[in-house]
Amino acid sequence: MGSLLKCYRPFFSLHLGMHRFTNPKRRIRCLSTTTSTHSVAAKSEIPASSSELWLHNTMSRKKELFKPKVEGRVGMYVCGVTAYDLSHIGHARVYVTFDVLYRYLRHLGYEVTYVRNFTDVDDKIIARANELGEDPISLSRRYCEEFNRDMESLHCLPPSVEPRVSDHMPQIIDMIKQIIENGHAYQVDGDVYFSVDKFPDYGRLSGRKLEDNRAGERVIVDSRKNNPADFALWKSAKEGEPFWDSPWGPGRPGWHIECSAMSAAYLGYSFDIHGGGMDLVFPHHENEIAQSCAACKQSDISYWIHNGFVTIDSEKMSKSLGNFFTIRQVIDLYHPLALRLFLLGSHYLSPINYSDVLLESTSERIFYIFQTLYDCENVVSHPDVSTLKDTIPPEILESINKFNDVFVTSMSDDLHSSVVFGALSDPLKTMNDLLHTRKGKKQALRIESLAALEKITRNVLSILGLMPASYAEILQQLKEKALKRAKLTEDQVLQKIKERNSARKNKEYEKSDTIRKDLAAVGINLMDNPDGTTWRPAVPLAIQQQLQVASS
Predict the structure, then answer these.
(1) How far apart are the C-alpha atoms of 348 and 310, rounded to whole Å?
(2) Tens of pLDDT along 231-257?
(3) Which terminus of the chain is less hemmed in, N or C, by CB atoms within 10 Å?
(4) 145-153: which pairs have CB atoms within 8 A and are 24 or more residues apart?
(5) Who's near 222: CB < 8 A, 6+ residues apart?
(6) pLDDT number for residue 476
(7) Are strands 185-188 and 191-194 parallel, antiparallel or unpaired?
């Protein structure tokens, strides 16, 4: 068993790439700052400027200027999934939100240590494992791997560290021992409970009064408790459950203590950002604060950040309610970047209502974005270099500067990515005018303008985690997803185009129109041009009508 940890300081010195860690069993003391370091991603070509970053702090219930405890460095802990099943799009929203925060902090030049845990010891995992006749740790390990595949699909960068509960029992047990020594917990028949009455600030994060509190989620009401709101730090072993030895007998940790111990282990008791979904404010994060402060008086997290729910028909999406779609289910039919754009299309604090209607619209939007950039890249990549100049027209420069200003201002104002996507319409329209209109094709410095517009758009999308490996590749992938939703193959679409061309040639215009409408009804839009007829994904006609009704 690890030695008693009086007050934690981070014990891992992080060096990404090599992942060298110091001895995790050394004594850890309470410090006021985080000392972990983490390599910084290559800087984007968009200047971070001196813009101040403001973030909404759940603790103060207002936006606050972000000031890290250590200049130039940020410690961020985000509560990860309880790994017993495939993750749903409510989870996707949490981790896309904090991925954007992680990326933007790095863009601003901060060295960020991002810790996101896996809960691999929990009642739900044990129950699922028993159903399947599988070892709980093995089952959880499998779903941890599935979760990471989902995150990779959604372009979420891997955190600096992904600790698992089962690997941190010495640290968890040492923290519980410290809480007991400090008079904030008590033992009952091999269980250990935190005494909320001993912590006067309990409820500060959630705004709940102690007398109004109930036993929290994952906490069974127990007559042995001093107060019904007291929560388990350690649970005595039950037959058929995994257990670890402890001073209180064999057992396993409660849910809340796991994150307190792991965050302290990697970031110290005092660090910058602690985040998660809004549903974690109470009881999980409230209990984390109580535990950490009970173990170390100097415990202090500067910013508590929480994202809003994903809802279905205005009801929170969750596994327990059974009204959820897994990430896999969604990206089977829609491109992962379409899902990412959908999740970033509303401010992270606001609830977002999931629907196929909105995903269809987002899919069409992302196709338009990358088709524009693909067309732009094709024109820009074949210029006569000798004729290019190192300048662009004043109106193009003004458009670029305006978009950059909106990006910096909006992202620095509590990560308003939705405003950025709204502003993206202007450079995209300008690019399409230069690419396809008679006037645009004749404009002076056209190639230079297109190159500059493509570059600023690409850089913004990169910072937001929306850049594909190549424009051509994502366009093909988006078309494949559209075909799957339409229950058609590309050969079938091409055959329909051939039949329509023949009908037009024979002046069978009614037949021609019927073919076009039938394809449009399932989200396949035909486009006639001098070189022939091509197709692209589009919002199916019935869904277009729903969107029109919703916007009217």
Answers:
(1) 10
(2) 999 999 999 899 999 999 999 999 999
(3) C
(4) 146/86, 146/87, 147/80, 147/81, 147/83, 147/87, 147/91, 147/118, 150/86, 150/87, 150/92, 150/327, 150/328, 150/331, 151/95, 153/327, 153/331, 153/336
(5) none
(6) 98
(7) antiparallel
**Quick one: which of 332, 230, 217, 197 has its CA closest to 277?**
217
Q: What is the pLDDT of residues 506-519, one digit of tens each?
A: 999 999 999 999 99
Q: Which amino acid belongs to residue 456?
A: I
Q: How many residues does the chain have?
A: 552
Of 357 and 45, the one with more pLDDT:
357
Question: What are the tokens at 397?
Answer: 């420069």
Confidence of residue 215 (pLDDT cuts 50, 70, 90): very low
Alpha carbon 5 to its chain's center? 32
To which residue do tokens 């001098």 refer? 530
The tokens for 78 are 């985000």
- DSSP labels, 222-257: -TTSSSTT-EEEEEE--TTS--B--TT-SEEE-HHH
- More confident of the two residues 382 and 511: 511
Q: Both tokens of residue 77?
A: 């802990």
Whether the model clears a pTM of 0.70, i.e. scores above it, the answer is yes
Four-point Cα dihedral 514, 519, 524, 527, nearest 10: -20
| CA–CA dist 106, 116 (Å, integer) | 17
Residue closest to 541 by CA, chosen among 527, 514, 520, 515: 520
- Chain centroid to Cα 424, Å, comes to 21
**Residues 6+ positions from 413 with CB-CB distance below 8 Å:** 54, 63
Q: State the average pLDDT for the chain.
A: 90
Contact 266, 115 (CB under 8 A): yes
The strands making up 191-194's β-sheet, listed across from edge to edge, are 185-188, 191-194, 231-236, 251-253
From residue 197, alpha-carbon distances to 222, 227, 256, 301 in Å are: 16, 8, 17, 22
Judge whether 24 and 12 are in contact, CB under 8 Å: yes
- Which range, of 67-71, 117-121, 311-315, 350-354, averages the lowest pLDDT? 311-315
Nearest CA among 223, 259, 18, 244 for reference residue 137: 244
Q: Where are the alpha helices (DSSP H) in 68-207?
A: 89-107, 123-132, 136-153, 169-181
The pLDDT tens digits of the residues spanning 92-127 come to 999 999 999 999 999 999 999 999 999 999 999 999
